[in-house]
Amino acid sequence: MNCTITRRTLLKAAGLSLTVSAVPAARAAATSTTTATLSARPGHAAITRGETPATAIWGYDGQVPGPLLRLRQNDTLEVKLKNDLPQPTSIHWHGIRIDNAMDGSPLVQQPVEPGDSFDYRFTTPDAGTYWYHTHTRGYEQLTRGLYGVLIVDEAEPLAESFDQEHILVIDDWLLDKEGQIDEETIGAMMHMSHGGRSGNWASVNGVNKPEISVDRGGRTRMRLINTCNARILDLDFGELDVWTIALDGQPVAPARLENQLVLAPGQRVDLAVDIPENFSEPKILGIAMRDSIYEAAYFVASDKPPLKPRDNSPEALADNPQSKLVLNLDNPLKVTLDMQGGAMGRMREASLGGKMTDIRTLVRSGKVWAFNGIADMDTAQQPLFEARRGSTVTLDITNNTSWPHAMHLHGHHFRQIRADGNSVTPGPWRDTHLMERGEQHTMALVADNPGDWLIHCHMVEHAASGMTGWFRVT
Ligand code: C2O
Ligand code: CU
Predict the structure, then answer these.
(1) Domain 164-317 carries which CATH code?
(2) pTM of the model as a whole
(3) Quick one: CATH architecture of 325-473?
(4) Which residues line ligand 1 (CB under 6 A)?
(5) Label partner for 234 (CA 20 to 30 A): which of 91, 112, 330, 405?
């Protein structure tokens, strides 16, 4: 990444449209509908903040991130997607337990042709931090910037009050010297077969190294989203006092962050961050690289007089309906998922179009990974599994590759199950779960949302080259 750090980069960042200074108050009980029109179209973004010409991107309303969509839990969102791009597109509402027909995946929706539009309409059962993004040619369209933030506010006022809220969308970009997206490498087999496309510029809310203004003595709710194609972020908050309060939208018991925070592509985290009363010099939000810290953003003190710091630790957020789902592990549907392939892997052949195909031919067809020996499970007739609505499914996943993968479920959250003698310790509910190379994890979900759903690696180059399957809930 571009690692030149000078005083010059501390200029005030314009366009930090996602920094919200007040937290919305809860409204009256009746549910309501929020409407928006999103035009997917070309635009420009000052990612490098003037170090190069502005970057030509594709974005919702021509911006990156796209417009912030925000509504209350149990409310309805209606979005008209207008396709003003030169190729078909669609929107997926990442992490929302949505009506299947509105999921935006190719299993349930024909991509919207250029010049056409599509009306999405759904309710939001769980509060939390979500995002929306293209689900067509992700390895190209996500690279170009087609994503935005979706916040669902808690139906009930929070027990905890925050003085501020900050939304930090972290992305990386592979740009040439002119600051333009390196187009030749979009969808390159080199990226597909290795760790996916990683950038040489980082952005937070669409700009490199912005300043984020924080109130001294205040407690801020920070919502972080990793929208990178493939980069796993190890985030470093220096000496700031940070608690994790939600993962992938779902509340967790507040826990002090002791180490770096790992955020894989697609994942989100909500944090409570206490800003010291005497905070003065910029503090760094760092991305830990192998042997150094790359500055992603700077926290700087606002002009407000210091607030009186709290002496309590943050309270837990109220449970979502998702968090109340109960696994029935006595008699689950047991599914195994063997992840195979990639550079430095042992895969020699896999099934493609129903025929066993050698690796050279697979590569020529743009496939280099497989699930359970099938390189095109996304278009295969057979789902990975079929579950009755309400049943518990365990997914025994083995990452038999030399690369980490961020496994994402549509329409559901799942949690890791660790057998501990006789007792079972469940991990947090997540919609995206990181599997390091060689790892074997047992995940469990309650299949309570009827329809056909994708399961894929969220490293979008991997998803396009074999790491996509699907499951059916009836
Ligand atoms: Cu956020 Cu199918 O992806
Ligand atoms: Cu992957």
Answers:
(1) 2.60.40.420
(2) 0.94
(3) Sandwich (2.60)
(4) 92, 94, 133, 135, 266, 408, 410, 454, 456, 458
(5) 91
